[in-house]
Amino acid sequence: MSLTTFINDQQDPAGTLVVVFLRGGADGLNMVVPHGDDGYYRARPGIGIRRENLLELDGFFGLNPHLSALHRWWQEGQLSIVHCAGSEDETRSHFEAQDFMEHGGLAAGGWLGRFLRVRPDAGQSPLTAVAIGAQLPECLRGAPSCAAIQSLDDFGLGDRVPDGFLPQLAALYKTAPGVLGPAGQSALAALERISALTKTTYSPARQAEYRKDDFSSGLQQVARLIKGRVGLQAATLDLGGWDSHITQSVIMDPPMERLSQGLNAFATDLGPEELARTNIVVLTEFGRRVAENSALGTDHGRGSVLFLLGGALAGSKKVHASWPDLTHSPLVGPGDLPVNHNYRDILAPVLARQSKGVDLSKVFPGHLLQPLGLAS
Amino acid sequence: MSTTRRRFLQAATAGGAVAGVAGFSALSHVLAPILSGPGDGLTAFRPPEADEIDEATHVLNRLTFGPRPGDHAEMLKLGRKAWLDRQLEPESIDDGWTEARTRHFEALNVWPLGELLEYNARELLDQMTRAKILRAVHSRRQLQEVMVDFWSDHFNIDPSKGDSKWLKPADDKTVIRAHALGKFRDLVKASALSPSMLWYLDGRVNRRATAKEKPNENYGRELLELHTLGVNGGYTQDDVMEVARCLTGWTVRARENTRFAVGKVSFQADLHDDGPKTLLGVRIPAGLGERDLDQVLNIVCRHPATAQYLAAKLCRRFIADAPPASAVTHVAQAFTDSSGDIRHTLRTLFDSPEFLAARGGKVKRPFHFVVSTLRATAARTDAGPALQDYLLRMGHSPFQYPTPDGYPEEAQPWMATLLWRWKFALEFADRSLKGTRFDPQRLQHCAGGETGLAAHLLGRSPAAAETTALAASGQPVALLLASPAFQAF
Is residue B12 over pLDDT 80? Predict the structure, then answer.
């Protein structure tokens, strides 16, 4: 596939992978609540979410009301949820666990960086990957052509370009020998699209309403890039504030609102066709202790939830979990939800969908993949 | 390292990593004005005058990170052979200015190794990156720097894995730099026993203490596939396993297990598989212990596939992405005849008619593009975040390639980086790139005017179409740097 295909076609042939990292250890148990398990309510008499307040998912699990904006995507079969998900890192340290998850174990570079390097169509787009924010996350380490951006203006040539410059540059590349000629033409085409994006005021489609927070405005930038057909293969966003050691709901409700409303606006704005080619992955470094602590919070644990939105995955409308029964099954360590689904096995089918023929053993070295069957 | 500096280092590291880092930043701040004194000055020079790239420009293009003002005239004065003789004997070239400029990256010379672990890993990566950029820009031992870059990819290590974070500076110094123009076998041996490589390719956990234990074949495979014979070099899966067996027992003291002598490499006989082995048809008798390594090196370094594979790689770097078979055969012969003497092999390559004829047909990788810009314009840089950010955006940050095959050499994988190159050219020419400065008026004056400057940057007189384009562009220096001709070499 040539760069020209990327830029000139009406559709990016490969879609975009959007990775949202919930930093701080998000409590999966209060996000996707096992209301069918009494053990949950016994372990969390103060902070457990009562069944009548939940949005029903599959008769056993219910969605936290602060995630209600995601419920319609579940009902439409666009949202998949995996519970007891995580990595094998047992340190319960934010830094260690994030590092482990982003590198993909004891491996060099980040898993997303390796994915973008080893996929068969690697390095063909000038805007392969963006990280929304001030710096690149570890998972993007080693990616070809990636940039941390605060705004779309970062991509343009700036406003000090003299009028004559681009026409003259185009003239020189038109007659350039070898591979440089066509590459120059493609880069100029990409530049035109970016400049069209930055010169217009963006109006989200389908009355999508983005909130004013950083997470939502980051998603809006990503939506513009996806619709602008600039060849974006991956975008990463961070959403922090999950470290709920005390007063669980005071800490967690605001980021849950940010997450669900942001994703809802994003998916609405993209519309069914774009959403089908876009895979959104939401993960966190670890979940939290099953039992609440004396400050009505929870401490660092192991398994949590992982959300997958879009990508025409045709969700089964059942939460994937090998549920442990919180009363009778032994929990792990100091009383934590086990990790029954390695995050790599959940990502594997998504990555395979994003890039046909990618060698996943190079993306996740040292891990024997057992890809999770996500379809219904 | 002098005693005073040594004592300073100890005092700084004794206070922990943070104090150490702060100490060095303060030191470099004090030294910066002294170090940026004369020694790299820009004076009037004569740019190339031919309509096509001449031999002098060609040799400079291929064997350096791009000509600086005056390099072309110097090459003409010395003659190609004498210039090459000097570059092949880098110790004969006084490089004091570069040494002074990079000396304050203390961490890169720390000894014993364990002291590296006192540093913040990000700070180490930053120091390594800055030193690499500054040496590429300023060193007069340019062929040495080009070969360091070549071997850094050939024996690629991404230090983000495990203790490599701290140990890569030692690999850069005692493996890559020490042997860049030496004997290939010495280079492979140093790499095989480099603590950073033992971490990166899992050699440190390659062991067979019991009959049940299976050796880790990660390093063994890459040794054959990437470092010596090449993927089509005729080895089998059995050969990979046999190399792994031969190298069982070599291990590194890890940070998580000890505070003492971290990074020390040792051979543990009780973890070694001491049975007989057969590698590439050659029998290695039982009971050789750690001497198995030398047997492996003898077999793989002398193998004809290794000569062929390395010759092809060198020809790809110096002649063309698809080099002529005649040149590869010729260079492979030189490698074999000299028992893998890198200097001799390179001299043969550089004297070959294929090399001398292949002008301007390669595309610079992003690091080369950025460094050649700074060299051509006699720019000064702190090699800091603004510059490093461009390398990151172009996907070519030093020491950050994740897989063991190293950054690709061919043009195609880099074709998507033009946009960032143009942005860099504009920002640089506009003198708004933070931490990097040059004087466009003085440069143009020293080059003898507009046409002289264009000829200097293009390595030949500008064509009529180029002269027209430059005049109409409103920003001729940026257009020259962004032009297709400046991307090629």
Answer: no
Contact B134, B101 (CB under 8 A): yes
Closest B-chain CA to A107:
B161
Q: Distance between CA A225 and CA A18 in Å, rounded?
A: 12
Per CB-CB distance under 8 Å, the chain A contacts of B393 are: 145-147
Q: pLDDT for A27-55, tens place per residue? A: 999 999 999 999 999 999 999 999 999 99
Calpha distance B439→B416 (Å, rounded): 30
Determine, for residues B160 and A141 on separate chains, whether the beta-carbon distance falls below 8 Å: yes
- CA B238, distance to chain mean position in Å, is 32
- Angstrom distances, CA of residue B190 to CA of B174, B198, B454, B472: 8, 11, 44, 54
Q: C-alpha distances in angstroms, B336 versus B179, B192, B314, B317, B339?
A: 18, 21, 14, 19, 5
Exposure of B278 by Cβ count < 10 A (0-12 exposed, 13-18 middle, 19+ buried)? exposed
Both tokens of B423, joined, read 């942005």
Residue with tokens 């070295």: A365
Q: In the predicted model, what is the mean pLDDT of chain B? A: 91
Residue A105 has pLDDT above 70, yes or no: yes
Alpha-carbon span B266 to B269, nearest angstrom = 10
Query: CA distances (Å), A118 to each of A131, A147, A356, B290, in order?
Result: 19, 18, 11, 36
Q: Is the dihedral of CA A193, A198, A199, A202 positive or negative?
A: positive
The pLDDT, as a whole number, for residue B448 is: 96
Asked whether the CA dihedral B406, B408, B409, B415 is positive or negative, the reply is negative
Q: Is the pLDDT of residue B254 over 80?
A: yes
Q: How many Å apart are CA B201 and CA A62, to the nearest integer?
A: 45
3 state SS of B306: helix
Pair of tokens at residue A154: 């970062």
E strand segments, B280-383:
282-284, 380-381
- pLDDT on residue B15: 36
Buried b (16+ CB within 10 A) or exposed e, A201-236: ebebeeebebbebbbbbbbbbbbbbbbbbbbbbbbb
Residue A157 tokens, joined: 């040539």
CA distance B34 to B39: 11
List CB contacts (< 8 A) between A142 and chain B: 158, 400-403
Residues 6+ apart with CB under 8 A from A18: A219, A222, A234, A235, A236, A237, A266, A278, A279, A280, A281
Identify the residue whose tokens are 């217009």.
A200
What's this model's pTM, rounded to 2 decimal places?
Answer: 0.83
Rounded to a whole number, what is the distance in Å from the CA of A43 to chain B's nearest CA?
35
- Give all strands (DSSP E) within B99-140, no chain letters: none
Taking contacts as CB-CB distances below 8 angstroms, the residues of chain A near B479 are 165, 168-169, 172
Quick one: pLDDT at residue B3?
37
Question: Given an 8 Å threshold on Cβ–Cβ distance, is B361 in contact with A181?
Answer: no
Q: Which amino acid is at B380?
A: R
Query: What whole-number distance in Å separates Cα of residue B308 and Cα of residue B426?
Result: 42
Give per-residue pLDDT as tens, A162-182. Answer: 999 999 999 999 999 888 998
pLDDT digits (tens, 9 = 90+) for B444-464: 999 999 999 999 999 999 999
| Range of weakest confidence among A283-292, A316-325, B71-80 | A316-325
Place of tokens 């390669």: B362
Strands across the sheet containing A32-33: A32-33, A62-63, A55-56
Q: What confidence tens digit (pLDDT) does each residue in B59-105 have?
A: 999 999 999 999 999 999 999 999 999 999 999 999 999 999 898 89
Collapsing DSSP states into helix, strand and coil, what is residue A33?
Answer: strand
Residue B405 confidence class, pLDDT cut points 50, 70, 90? very high
- Residue numbers in A near B423 (CB within 8 A): 157-158
CA distance A2 to A156: 22
Residue B31 has pLDDT above 60, yes or no: no
